[in-house]
């Protein structure tokens, strides 16, 4: 039986390059966020509210793009940040985060 790291590596290798690139952007943002905000809330309500806040900023950027000539780059930034805090929440739910 394979060890978990080898299994995950093999699964990751099978992903399309576009997925790998997107995940890489999210992981980079996750690493920045952990350094910038090292104290992650311990209770689920506050953790989820952080994800909700980022998702709200994504919605705002999308609305501004459609109705106010906002930049597409702002949407991409918010997508990445939402992914990063979602990843942080998921890691913490599994007991491996900070």
What do these coordinates show?
By secondary structure, this protein is mainly alpha-helical. The protein contains four helices and no strands. α2 crosses α4 (72-93) and α3 packs antiparallel against α4.
Question: Secondary-structure blueprint of this entry?
Answer:
Elements: H1 4-13, H2 17-36, H3 44-67, H4 72-93
Mind describing the biggest β-sheet?
Answer: none
Q: Structural class, from helix and strand content?
A: mainly alpha
Quick one: overall form? flat
Please provide the count of β strands.
0
Number of helices: 4
Report the C-alpha radius of gyration, rounded: 16 Å
Distance between the termini: 30 Å
Q: Which strand-content bin applies to the residues?
A: under 5%
Estimate the helix proportion, in percent.
over 70%
Low-confidence stretches: none
Return the string of H and E elements. Answer: HHHH
**Overall mean pLDDT score?**
94
Give a brief description.
With 98 residues, the protein is mainly α.
What descriptors fit this protein?
single chain, 98 residues, mainly alpha, 4 helices, 0% strand
